[in-house]
Write a structure and sequence with these properties.
CATH class of the domain at 5-47 and 104-171 and 268-344: Alpha Beta
CATH topology of the domain at 5-47 and 104-171 and 268-344: FAD/NAD(P)-binding domain
CATH superfamily of the domain at 5-47 and 104-171 and 268-344: FAD/NAD(P)-binding domain
Structural class: alpha+beta
Mean pLDDT: 93
Largest sheet: 8 strands, mixed
CATH architecture of the domain at 5-47 and 104-171 and 268-344: 3-Layer(bba) Sandwich
Low-confidence stretches: none
Order of helices and strands: EHEEHHEEEEHEEEEHEEEEHEEEEHHHH
């Protein structure tokens, strides 16, 4: 059952909310996590954990479990069919994690939840927030069943359509892309690297192929109208039209699939009194670069540190500092994802010129190094 009071109420039990909760629980704070979905109802869109994210999670006691269950992709490349336009190796990065860890969001959440449970915490489901009222001393959150919780602070980690953000009256500025995205986890053979994430800029459109643990691959593509559930024939056409040609990749099975519309938006503020935002409630963007879940987790680490300090008697201005640091990072990530997405979906007439420009830039070691630093998140240290 819901407690009557808590230090921090976290709304949303995705990677961001769980990160905030683990961060506070390990520091001895009373944290309550609620989620509107029933157990196991989450999809698994995110599949990448970058080097900087693993670095900030080191004190949480979850990195070994994540690394042991993930697949290490040692590079990233942009290609036009079989031609490599931009190679981005991660091996030379100054970090203990010189790779991109490919791991499903479902597993990442399971590892974080297991750690929260070890620390005496748990997620209460399903509880749907209907209202948040705050005063100088705290905030009262009410739920669809009539229950309420009094908290010193409320964290909105409840996604793009955040009820907490709406209750706080914080605008979510941005827009949506015209094209839809198709996503599928598949089993395939031949054609694609087993240790590298590839972004294909083909004349037919953009395609991402990323290896996952267990031999499957994550496929993401922009299409005018994505099917609700992509089948083998649909994914095979994407690979045939946009992927490798010299060695054909053959789809054997679609394990899971979905479609989604992509927005690029950033909240106008990360704090409104006793209410704070993190993750997709604060920023959303294209999956290009695989930054979404990583930005949310790093938000969560920073927010947990700030909340602990304030609960311990520190200045509430530390919570404003959280937003002052993290919001510009989100703006940079949104800008990068937007540039990559617009490059990938440029008009067919201009794609040869785009590819030539990318090859010329890729000849510069400084360009490849900067891209590796930005994709890995190390640029935000």
């Amino acid at each position: 059952m819901l407690p009557a009071t808590t230090d921090v109420l976290v709304v949303g039990a995705g990677p961001t909310g769980l990160t905030v909760a683990v961060g506070l629980a390990r520091l001895g704070r009373h944290v309550t996590v609620v989620d509107g979905q029933a157990e196991g109802a989450n999809t698994t869109r995110a599949a990448v954990v970058h080097a900087r994210t693993l670095e900030v999670l080191e004190p949480y006691g979850v990195v070994d479990a994540l690394v042991s269950r993930g697949l290490r992709a040692t590079g990233f490349s942009i290609r036009d069919r079989d031609r490599v336009l931009v190679p981005v190796p991660f091996g030379g990065l100054p970090t203990a994690y010189p790779y991109t860890l490919m791991i499903s969001q479902e597993v990442t959440e399971a590892v974080l939840l297991a750690r929260l449970t070890e620390l005496g915490g748990r997620v209460l489901r399903p509880y749907t927030v209907t209202g948040v009222e705050q005063d100088e001393a705290g905030a009262t959150v009410t739920f669809a069943g009539g229950e309420s919780v009094r908290a010193a602070y409320v964290v909105g980690a409840d996604g793009m359509h955040s009820t907490v953000r709406e209750q706080a009256g914080i605008a979510f500025t941005g827009e949506a892309y015209a094209e839809s995205f198709s996503l599928a986890d598949v089993r395939l053979s031949g054609g694609v690297p087993q240790d590298e994430v590839v972004l294909y800029f083909s004349p037919a459109g953009v395609l991402v192929v990323a290896p996952l643990p267990g031999g499957s691959y994550r496929i993401v593509a922009t299409v005018p109208e994505a099917p609700r559930v992509p089948d083998v024939a649909f994914v095979q056409r994407l690979l045939d039209d946009r992927g490798p040609e010299a060695g054909r990749a053959v789809v054997r099975e679609v394990v899971w699939g979905s479609r989604f519309q992509v927005h690029h938006r950033v909240a106008d503020a990360y704090r409104a009194g006793r209410i704070l935002l993190a993750g997709d409630a604060a920023h959303v963007h294209s999956p290009a670069g695989g930054q979404g879940m990583n930005a949310g987790i790093t938000d969560g680490v920073a927010l947990a540190t700030a909340l602990d300090a304030v609960l311990g008697g520190g200045s509430p201005g530390l919570l404003d500092a959280y937003g002052a640091v993290r919001r510009p990072v989100a703006q940079q990530i949104v800008s990068l994802a937007d540039r990559i997405t617009r490059l990938a979906t440029v008009d067919r007439r201009f794609r040869p010129a785009r590819n030539l420009a990318l090859r010329l830039l890729a000849a510069l070691p400084a360009f490849r190094r900067q891209l590796a630093w930005r994709l890995s998140g190390l640029v935000y240290r």
